[in-house]
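Troubleshooting log. The previous structure file for this entry was overwritten by mistake, so regenerating from the original sequence record. Sequence copied from the archived sheet and checked twice against the printout by T.R.
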Amino acid sequence: MSDKKQHINSDFDQILDNFDYNDRGSVREIWSAADGAKSRKEVVTEDETIQALASVRNRLDLDKNASPIKSTKPMPSKPNSRRRNYLGIYSALLVAATIVIAVTYSWFFSTTTILAPHGQQLSYTLPDGSAAELNSGTSLSYNARFGNNSRTVTINGEAYFDVISSEVPFFVNTATATIEVTGTSFNVRSWENDNTTVHLLSGSVDFYPANKKENAVKLSPGNFSSLAAPDAAPSDPERFNENRVATSRNNLLSFNNETLTGIFSELERRYNVNITFEETSMGSETLSTFYSNPVALESVLQDICTVKGLQFSQTANGYRVFSGN
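Regenerated output below.
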């Protein structure tokens, strides 16, 4: 029996209680006869049913001391109350369902962001067991679906990855590029407004501009490639000294033909200081240098300024670099 039919029968039983015991059999027969009229296509409402029962009672000329049904207004109170209860329950369920959907949606698209503070390096284990080592000032983010049907992270900065092998590809997104792997170790450097550079230590990766896999280059261990802009193509793979990649992981310094702007930005993150140029044109000059041991910031600044004919001085907020002429 349907829930609706059960509710109607329940309402009828309550209405039947208003009739004398000896009259209830006749009322029930009339009710059964009406229920058996299957050929009728009109839908009889509850109010119409109550009116019909009131008419039956009047025709039976029941005792006036019995609980009367004088009009259709008082009797619908129980069904109307029940309908209001049903609507209340339905509304509560609808609100609960909406909350569940909202919470699920929020979780589904929620993002976890890991940030290595300036002056510090940070090691982090992703949900699938892959390891990431973040250089100072680097941010790494991934959403709640990571590890289920996809493994995608986004970085701004420099990070070394040791990726767990899996049938689910591992993607590293930067502002300009995508690195796709299944299980390997590599270093990604991609600061805002800077090139994206990938150094591969083991395994293999496909390196390509964002959303342009047809322009991918495949790297082999010991090779690196760079991408200058999203509409450019990655550079042809070249060999590199693996010891230099290890410098950032060991808090050492290595710069290969980089601009002073890029070098000083790295020094700011690494040593958590501010370095300003007296003349912005100085920033376009390039330099290569390598430090195989930890070194004090002022020693690095002294070396750079000596090579480039510059000077530096300490300020209340950090250091100022200016022309030595």
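The two ends are 99 Å apart (CA to CA). Archived copy saved in two places this time.
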